[in-house]
Amino acid sequence: MDLLPTDPVKIWTFIIVGLSFALYIGIAWRAKAESTSDFYVAGSRVGAVANGMATAAGWMSAASFISMAGMMSFLGRDGAMYLMGWTGGYVLLALLLAPYLRKFGKYTVPDFVGERYYSQTARVAALVCAIFVSFTYVAGQMRGVGVVFARFLEVPVEFGVVIGMAIVFIYAVTGGQKGITYTQVAQYCVLIFAYMLPTFFISLLMTDTLLPQIGFGAELTTEPGTSLLDKLDGLSQDLGFAAYTGRGSKTTIDVFFITLSLMVGTAGLPHVITRFFTVPKVKDARLSAGWALLFIVILYATAPAVAAFARTNLLTTVHNTAYAQVPDWFSKWEETGLIRFSDKNQDGRIQYYNDRNPAFAERATAQGWKGNELYIDRDIIVLANPEIAQLPAWIVALVAAGGLAAALSTAAGLLLVLSMSVSHDLMKKVIRPDITEQQELRYARFAAAGAVIIAGYFGIYPPGFVAQVVAFAFGLAASSFFPVIVLGIFSKRLNRAGAIAGMICGMSFTTAYIIYFKFISPEANTAEHWLWGISPEGIGGVGMLINFGIALVVSSFTSPPPPAVQDMVEEIRIPRN
To answer: Which of 255, 385, 411, 529 has the fewest CB atoms within 10 Å distance of its CB?
Structure first.
């Protein structure tokens, strides 16, 4: 890496990313946690608007900023399942769970499970689930950090992950939830500005319309009378892909279960639930949930347009282009290994098409093509989009800063959950109940440091694309936490035996299914081998149903909870401010 870079994009990246990192570290240092209450829940003194912004930043991870539009650009209409699942899940969380959990007043989800189900075994089972979910999720965030650094600072992905680890370590270990909360407010401002500004410019360039949501369906400036989506459908079909707006390769049942898994998984994510303990009152939890939804919608309502713009620009720029004449952005991304070209027919031109389409194979063979020659990592689409559209270098660098803000904000929240799980739920509540507050805080910081190291490893060796990895995490959350939280609030009859059995069975089934198809037999990871045609990304929905069923059945055949616990459940459900 050059000490004095001459590339304008790299110069601007150093400036903008450096300033943003200085801002995050400065905020975390000023908001340094002095007590366990500060470290875990920011002293429960965060205002509703600030908490809504921090919640949005923590929830809109690298999957939302970097990978969601990338997945949609490749999957077309099928990619909307990510949009529907994550948005619907947040609504479910805000309306069904957040106010009640805030009223309960505990620090963590395992704390809620341990108290509600009057069992240390239930607490430990929830603790294991929280660690499992959080590590799976954080792997996607660290992968996103590595992708951004790999391109814009021209360093290996592995080194980019290490840089991200160092930054998160500083403000997560120092500031705890207090520092993370106010850092996430700044990160939301950075990521939303970075996401929206280039999209406005690209919409103007392609459709002469400022708002991308309108430009998404408008006519192209270069082809009057042809809409953007009609053009994209034609480009896709000309290259053997399904029409962008048509039905994709996924079955209806798989799309349904992926959407369901993402939706209920959102409502069970421990790092999102924890955010509602940082406000003073139940009323503030409801208000912050509403503000967060508004802040989230700004990005989510724009993502389909980003996906369509990027896909159109990519197809028109890359296919059948002489490799010797590829634009600079292609060469820069090629250096990261996230784009790869293999000249299979030795004609010096890039053929990018669907070589798995039998109907298109004959046409490709007739033209002398010998297979698709281009590999494109889906995680680069949003980051490369401003470069493909030839926007100024400072906008390209701003997008890099936004991607880092999205990934780091969620990673920090997840690492805090891991820290709390070890220090509060394991050490304080199970192993050493007599430790002082300062000892607990020390354990929390040590646990956060260890979690950063393990998260970095998973970021360097992730099991898939960012959105795929995050989808696995949502599936694990759906199959473990969602049923016991919902039933813990709304069913006085559910007891500890049912909760423990449900969590173990739901989580075990989902984990085994994902591990089998992703690691043991990846060659069998096709629709004909899946259970009922449901992919690993969607199996969490089935795991959730198993959890619900087993929890209810076991509870009906075992002793009901003690009267004090039933009274507590009744008290949680009484609406108060």
So the answer is: 529
